[in-house]
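Figure 3 (text version): structure tokens given as input.
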């Protein structure tokens, strides 16, 4: 089993596949989770990492954990 297939097996039931269905077709998600579509899997993980990072940044900004200059610097990294 490939590394991507192992990650797909571990992430089963976490909602990651449902999230990926918003970006890719259902059959593509099945192949990605099995480790057959490496490029799609890499892109899906990259998208999810970016979105989770932006959600954390938004949470920290709303709750005052970061100053304005810190928020701008981190947003430049994501863009």
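Below: residues designed for each position.
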């Amino acid at each position: 089993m490939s590394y991507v297939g192992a990650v797909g097996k571990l992430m089963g039931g976490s909602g990651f596949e449902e999230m990926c269905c918003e970006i890719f077709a259902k059959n593509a998600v099945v192949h990605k989770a099995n480790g057959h579509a490496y490029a799609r899997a890499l892109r899906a993980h990259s998208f999810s990492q970016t979105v989770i990072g932006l959600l954390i940044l938004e949470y920290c900004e709303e709750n005052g954990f970061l100053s304005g200059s810190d928020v701008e610097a981190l947003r430049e990294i994501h863009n």
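The longest helix spans residues 38-62.
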